[in-house]
Specification:
heterodimer, A: 214 residues, alpha/beta, two-stranded antiparallel ribbon, 5 helices, 25% helix, globular, B: 729 residues
Chain lengths: 214, 729
Amino acid sequence: MIWGVLQFPGSCDERDALHACEVAHGEARLVWHEDRDLSGIDAVVVPGGFSYGDYLRAGAIARFSPAMEAVAEFAAAGGPVLGICNGFQVLCEAGLLPGALLRNQELRFVCRQVELVAEGSSEEVLSIPAKHGEGRYYAAEEVLDELEGNGQVAYRYAPGHNFNGSARDIAGVRNEAGNVVGLMPHPEHAVDPLTGSTDGLRVFEAVAAAGARA
Amino acid sequence: MSVETSKHRELGLTDAEFGLICEKLGREPNDVELAMFSLLWSEHCAYKHSRKLLGKLPTEGERVLMGPGENAGAVSVGNGYAVAFKVESHNHPSAVEPFEGAATGVGGIMRDVFAIGARPIALLNSLRFGELDSARSRHLLDGAVRGIGHYGNSIGVATVGGEIYFEDPYEHNCLVNAMCIGLAKSEDMVRAAAAGVGNAVVLMGASTGRDGIGGASVLASAELGEGDSDKRPTVQIGDPFEESKVLECCLELLEKGLLVSLQDLGAAGLTSSAGEMASAGGVGIDIDVARVPLREPDMEPFEIMVSESQERMLAVVEPARVAEVLAVCEKWQTGSAEIGVVTDSGQIRILRGGEVVGEMPVEALVDGCPLYDIEPGEPEGWTYGNRATLAAGASAEDELLALLAAPSIASKRWAFEQYDAVVGSRTVRRPESAEAAVLQLPEAGNAIAVSIDGNGRRVACDPHAGTIEAVLECAQNLACVGAEPLGLTNCLNFGNPEKPLPAWQLDRAVSALAEACTALGVPVVGGNVSLYNEGPDGPIYPTPVVSMVGELPDPAQVAGNAFAAAGDAIGLIGPFAPTLAGSELAKQRGELALGLPQPDIAAVAAACATVREAVRAGRLACAHDVSDGGFAVALAECAIGAGLGARVDLQPLRDRGCSPEEALFGEGSGGFLVSGERAELDALGAVYLGEVGGTTIEIAAGDRSLVVGLDGAESAWRSLPAQAEHRGA
């Protein structure tokens, strides 16, 4: 499996994401933000950071990049896409995922190991670091109802771990087709027992599995 | 008095210095030249009151690859890799505008590190504020923490450690010292010397504006006073996105071998970077200010030369490679312009188009500033005042809780959770989970540990003993994670060196730093000096912040600083014989006075070696350096971290001559609180004190024996957020 990791000016976690993809499954390469060519890529990661400085609004500029145009086509064709933190914000701005990420309720950046519950049959609990200032998931009540009804909530913060005030403890969502997933915590920083946990690998494996089904 | 003479005084030059400049030029300087001289001859750039003292520091070592004088120091970590590190102050800008001051402090220290070709992999910081019952201190703390987080988080470099102390003497003059650690292939590191007559001088990064004009002389080299808000325009504004692009751009340029040399633009902007590059290379440089990309079109040549606009780098490039360099800058969407040329004139020439607007010998500008002897005056007694906050007759339990809640001792989680500690996938120990930050280096096949320390109150009590203690605390913290020191850097934060007391403190502290580093065999690979840290009430506590980087072979063998299991034995290693002098308890009782016992460096070094080897061999479950608040606080921290109580008897410390209070709360070097199997502790020569377990902290210490519930201890230790945000007050 070949992963493509987008790289914008201002990306921070792209090298860690590259490494995590390699630990998870096979090869990975960076895709420059001006590049539209995703040929040969089986799954895309839109990584964390502060794309284009996140000026204006987090993810608001990156969504217009040539690479994101290619990602939109890739996703429409059923290709698996994982957005992490800023990548989640970019996917929401691009309309590939529902909802929006607002400033944390305490109005501070927070870096903390959190527990996530992977929604679905296993109800697996994952320990993964989160680090962001704008990670409060928001959507209109009827949209939230719809997401829950469709099984589009991918990850929730375990009780006591929703530090940013996200609606219904939502940490990550997927699109209706299930091939595009975004979450605020950072699975790419949880692939090595020495740095705290290897639970992040489950997130990459789930994306790969979604790609295999599509 | 002529207009000219008053102008040089306004810029911070003495009449004698102005006379010397006229002599070296053979004429009076024009405005451009005067502005440039005033900055490079400022304390901040010329180190004119400290350079003579700094010569005492040991700088040589087998592992040293770059020492003082380069943008950052660097030591070999094996397998062809080097670790670069430096700490620098941004005190005065932060006291005026804490968010931007702290943010640009972080940005500046990162540029120093990537200027030598090292990728920044970690940040630390050392902060000092007034007490948290002051609204001003809370404002400065909040702004500085946000600023540090904003810059480091946005650029994607992990902030892995640091320390914060709160003391009245920092009320008006807070300290913000930022540290950066970088990793490079040893063979790829570059020096900052300009070379190659005819080579191009290329300015990269942000455009040049009027921000920070005169920052080095106005802010960094004079005391703060009333009306400092007028100085706000001299504080620089940071843009981490710009820095992120410049960083990646510079690393790509260096990797492709396109640069002859590289230098960051910090204090005094183009003036110091061009001057220092020319001086280091023994060449001249011509700069055409008309070719510098500007934010405002009508800037004067002197403004362009002294602007401290952030996120700029200066490179020397062979003419044939300029086009390639500009193309890489274009790729990273960062500015670039060929603004000058390396010459053999030995002069810095400033041109505007075809017109020469300034011309000075490099030697006079960069190295011509006179160096001064300081005139130390030993004080007759304690000059900083005392403020008792602890009720007389408090019980030992109340004293322990008051110490745990003291903002300097309480958990700093509120602050460090605002920093990204995990980006880069190297952080093996996050803040407060071990005595030093630990970063794995898969490239080199090992790991490094970093600690940053400096208790100004103890240095104020005794500049000699206090400074040695700071160095020893770093060494002890490294030992707790199994690391052996490779090198030390420092930031010397002191008051006005032209006054007897700060001069005495500086003189004694630098001698002690030299003594401790020489005795430990740890080379000083770099440093920074910040003087004139004073408020209306006088100087800050003398604050030598020292940081050590150490190496450990196996990042999987790192002891934590919390107990591991009930039933483990608790022991003490090291020549620890604490007293209340200069302690946190003495501060809270309002009993601070001059004088500390002199530490036994050799005995502490031996204890460090014992602990280091035991940790590397996996023989200790927990290792905690005993420092602020003494043994009782260290024990409580080990217990709170684990959610496990402990029961100990401090009779062995009583046997060393300590009173019950000294055994509980006394401070001094050389104490390691360790836990593990009893047989292992005995074999290591640890003094057995008791056992881990239960839900209380029980300490037998004669008539001051105490029992405190774990919950109560934890809520006191975690009270910083309420104090910092003034909740419930």
